[in-house]
Amino acid sequence: MALSRVRLRYTVRRISCEAIRVAAFTATLLAVATPDDAAAAASKAPWPPALLSQTGLFIGAPQKLDAQVRRYSPQYPLWSDGATKRRWIGLPHGAVIDATDAEAWVFPPGTRFWKEFSWAGKKVETRYLEKIGPARWLYATYAWNDAQTDATLVPAEGHKRHVEIAPGVFHDLPSHDDCRACHEGENRDAVLGFDALQLSPDRDPNAPHAEEVEPGWLNLAKLIAERRLKGAPTAWLEHPPRAVAGSPTARAALGYLHGNCWGCHNEKDPVSSVGMSLRVSLVATSEAEQPAVRTALGKRSKYQIPGVAPGESQRIAPGNPAASALFFRMRSRHPLRQMPPLGTKIVDQEALALLTRWVAGN
User: Do 159 and 70 share a structural domain?
Assistant: First the structure.
């Protein structure tokens, strides 16, 4: 799982975080400005703004959604310690997403994303993501007030132990470096959970933590019909993407790995040197062709599971969950062992049960 590589990338970014914090807010506007209008841009209000209600998500009161903002829901949600989430996207007027590479969409500058986290019916934070140039993204986190009327911008270093979400378990508001560590890749845009598989109207009824979707929400078919997706295969309308697998259990398991692990474990980012990809391939015609099966199932793991004989640990051991390094690290919340390494403090028991059934052949 190359935790050391992931943490190395995270640590390197930490080294320069002070310089990033000093320059981030002033550079954001200048990054998308021409030399002629740089002075005018610098005189504008700071961005991101101090309040969530000023980001364009809402008009007037926070409960009234801006008409240009669309809600969506990925069919394989990212596990975030049991949080209830709401997600929205705002595309610039007339702009389109480039889907020429069906598995690596490119978003137009000005694209905005919001993701709201709630526990026990109370909104805790909303994360904001905006593309501010051809290859640059701005990250911001907003903490909701007790009255639930608005949310305030969190400092770049985040806020540890912000709220208790389970007995003795506290949720952290992420820093800018935390956001970069998960979102930024070498050869892809920074968006996770918004792709052809995640937005497919052919939704998996067995997906862990599946969310109810209302008819008006944005999905792949609507993006194509509204001509907001350039280069999308025409076949997607008649045959929406799905995780091709040999059983409903396998389909859900592969989809979960795509939604929760693909961001780091793919063929293009720094940990690609590990040789393990956990994404779902849209061109695979059988379960055996899926990258997770080809690169993880039955493959020896460099990570040695405690108590397992040397050399016997596998990434995912068919029929033997106890010898599967992926399962062991998903169960762990030791900071040097757990997977994913950031963003979760509570083990996803539902997903572990699903993956166990899959490798056991049930």
Answer: yes
Q: What is the pLDDT of residues 264-289, one digit of tens each?
A: 888 877 677 789 999 999 999 999 99
What whole-number distance in Å separates Cα of residue 329 and Cα of residue 339?
5
Is 182's pLDDT higher than 90?
Answer: no
Whether 37 is covered by a domain: the verdict is no
Q: What is the pTM of this model?
A: 0.85
Alpha-carbon gap, residue 340 to 333, rounded angstroms: 9
| Domain count along the chain | 2
| 7 within a domain of the structure (yes/no) | no
Per-residue tokens: 249: 């259990």
The CA distance from 278 to 302, in Å, is 17
Q: If you average pLDDT over residues 193-214, what whole number do you get?
A: 96
Domain containing 303 equals 248-360
Q: Which amino acid is at 333?
A: R
Summarised one tens digit per residue, pLDDT across range 78-99 is 999 999 999 999 999 999 999 9
pLDDT confidence of 44, banded at 50, 70, 90? Answer: low
User: Please, what sign has the CA dihedral across residues 15, 19, 21, 26?
Assistant: negative
Residues in Cβ contact with 265 at an 8 Å cutoff, skipping those fewer than 6 apart: 1, 271, 274, 276, 277, 278, 279
What is the rounded distance in angstroms from the CA atom of residue 149 to the CA atom of residue 14?
Answer: 33
Distance CA 272, CA 1 (A): 10
Count Cβ neighbours within 10 Å for each residue of 245-273 and write b for 16 or more, e otherwise. Answer: beeebbbbbbbbbbbbbbbbbbeebebbe
